[in-house]
Write a structure and sequence with these properties.
Elements lengths: L2 H19 L5 H22 L1 H4 L4 H36 L5 H24 L3 E9 L10 E5 L10 H12 L5 E4 L8 H8 L11 E3 L3 H5 L2 H10 L3 E2 L3 E7 L2 E7 L16 H5 L7 E5 L6 H7 L3 E4 L10 H8 L5 E5 L2 E5 L17 E9 L2
Parallel strand pairs: 1-12, 2-3, 3-4, 4-5, 7-8, 8-9, 9-11
Antiparallel strand pairs: 2-12, 6-7, 10-11
């Protein structure tokens, strides 16, 4: 989308909010909201395009301001639309005139939701413990634990300290495997190397593994693959490893992002190729950034797929849009023999805001079927 189109769309949506709310507010509040909306109409697209306009750290500061405005704007937009639906319904039903009361309520509720969403996004991700029962699991692997982190998005608003807290929390879990299922970064290796460095301290009994997400391709995927390998993290690229645990074998495979082939033909996601040569009798776990890899994973014969990408919707209105692109939004799902676990993400993207979709560090315990 061109800069002109972004600015026009932003202006139109902000103008809609202004037209519906400013006039019904008391004059001082109406003026304040009008000024806020005018600034937001410029700052939201500026925050999205900050790296085209400026260089870090100035670009990061502009992104911070723009994303905070976007968080507030998103709540204003959704609540203004819902207010209009309510007023229409009241008008049709001959109900009371609540135009001014709801006009005052919308900005106040938007501010409250933005504040709560900010707190949810910036606090350290909580550990979510899930037991996954696999019919083909060797009894010796009962209790095998995979700790999954995903969609951290180290970049303009998420830096070293944020990631360091995640690493410390993951290490405290003493996992058998740590799996990073993509969208780790939003920025180049030279820009973010120091902020990603805490990953070198990640520890797990059988190692730390990574697969690319779509944002790695926006950020220089080849450089990031090399950097993660330098940090001691195994990048799985249409391949697998056989982990030996208590005398039993577990196949852990990984594929590039579902859209990787659009950026590099050698990065096509191929779950079948990732299994080539794997032992037939071992349980098979696939790391794949997007849930929509599940159809190919099921056809290839995997037992479990771990994904991210969706952020669980993160906040309205995106909660409604994710199911239009992905078969699963969050949690554990079944597709034939394949089980799919979708993390809500360990960081956030865009506005520092999470509502109804808390970030998570997924502590996944494998167990035989009952």
């Amino acid at each position: 989308m061109s800069l002109t189109s972004v600015l026009a769309l932003s202006a139109a949506l902000h103008l809609y909010i202004a037209a519906r709310l400013v006039a019904v507010l008391p004059t001082p509040a109406g003026v304040a909201l009008a000024v806020l909306l005018l600034a937001s109409a410029v700052l939201v697209p500026a925050g999205l395009l900050a790296r085209r306009l400026l260089h870090p750290p100035a670009a990061d500061r502009l992104t911070w301001i723009g994303m905070l405005c976007m968080g507030m704007f998103s709540s204003l937009l959704v609540l203004t639309f819902l207010r209009d639906l309510l007023l229409l319904a009241l008008h049709v039903a001959g109900g009371p005139d609540l135009a001014q009361a709801t006009g005052i309520a919308v900005p106040l509720l938007s501010l409250a939701l933005t504040a709560v969403g900010y707190f949810n996004a910036r606090r350290p991700a909580q550990v979510k413990r899930v037991t996954i029962r696999l019919p083909r699991l060797d009894p010796a692997l009962a209790g095998f634990r995979i700790v999954q982190i995903s969609d951290i998005h180290v970049g303009p608003t998420i830096k070293r300290d944020y990631l360091q807290a995640i690493v410390e929390r993951v290490n405290a879990l003493d996992a058998d495997v740590v799996a990073i299922t993509g969208d780790l970064v939003d920025g180049s290796v030279p820009e973010l190397r120091a902020h990603v460095a805490p990953l070198a301290a990640l520890r797990a009994r059988h190692g730390v593994f990574f697969v690319t997400g779509n944002h790695e391709y926006y950020s220089g995927v080849h450089g990031w693959v090399a950097e993660l390998q330098r940090l001691g993290i195994r990048v799985l690229h249409n391949e697998h490893v056989v982990l030996r645990h208590e005398g039993a074998a577990l196949v852990l495979a990984g594929v590039p992002d579902f859209t990787g082939h659009h950026f590099d033909p050698a990065h096509g996601s191929d779950p079948a190729a990732a299994l080539r040569g794997a032992p037939e009798d071992a349980v098979r776990v696939l790391l794949a950034h997007q849930p929509r890899s599940a159809t190919a994973a099921a056809a290839a014969g995997f037992d479990l797929q771990l994904s991210g990408h969706t952020h669980g919707g993160q906040f309205l209105p995106w909660t409604f849009f994710v199911p239009m692109q992905q078969p699963y939004t969050a949690g554990l799902h079944q597709l034939g023999r394949l089980q799919v676990y979708v993390s809500r993400g360990t960081g956030y993207w865009g506005p520092p805001k999470r509502l109804g979709a808390p970030s998570e560090i997924s502590d996944l315990r494998l167990a035989p079927s009952v």
